[in-house]
Amino acid sequence: MSVPTPSVTRTTARSKIDTKTIVSLAMLTAIAYIVMLLSKLMPSVMFLDFDFKDVVICIGGFTFGPMAAAIISILVAFIEMITISTTGIIGFIMNALATCAFCCTASFVYKKLHTKKGAVLGLGLGVVCLVVVMLLWNYLITPLYMTGYTRADVAALLPTLFFPFNLAKGGMNMAATLLLYAPVVTAMRKAGVVPPSQSSQEKKINAGFVLFSLALLATFVLFALVLAGVI
Questions:
Q1: In the chain, is it the N or the C terminus that has fewer CB atoms within a 10 Å radius of its CB?
Q2: What value does the mean pLDDT take over residues 148-153?
Q3: Averaged pLDDT, 168-190
Q4: How far is CA 183 from the centre of its chain?
Q5: DSSP for 44-91?
Q6: Which domains are seen in the chain, by residue range?
């Protein structure tokens, strides 16, 4: 009877890990798409929709790295374009850029600083990156597909519409990610679809951290409702 060599064993183990990762990314992509659909039920601000799919994508990025966040972001944006979107390729580009700006930035920082402070810092920088990138791209791209809006009209809306909208959207996704990452990933680890934790800090539930996240979420939800004219 032949005995598997160490190299064969390592190759088999690597293949199993890669397959498991692909399955996990596919699952996160499907969940992010469903969350995007459900987010359409929320109040919008003019032609801008609040979207919580970034929470799912950030969880994927925190778990598998910033490249995984980019892959899921592009896949979900593409599926949205060919199913329900009315803005075509331009909407796809804007959608993918917004999600990548937030999720890839947050995931990159968290990969370098794998702690709760790293998560807060990464998500905070993700919000900043989202706001800055979308201010620039809305100024450049929005006049190309929004009928009746000149570049001067869009420039006038940057501080009054696009800035507060993206700040509220990013803030809500930041707070929701802080709240959901640990329990969701713990459940995924128990199901065997996520690799073991790299940090013992993730296993600790800090009441102060949860309260901070809840307060942050409540603040930005209230801000979003004001922007949408609900209150």
A1: N
A2: 88
A3: 91
A4: 17
A5: -BTTB----HHHHHHHHHHHH-HHHHHHHHHHHHHHHHHHT-SSHHHH
A6: 15-227 (1.10.1760.20)
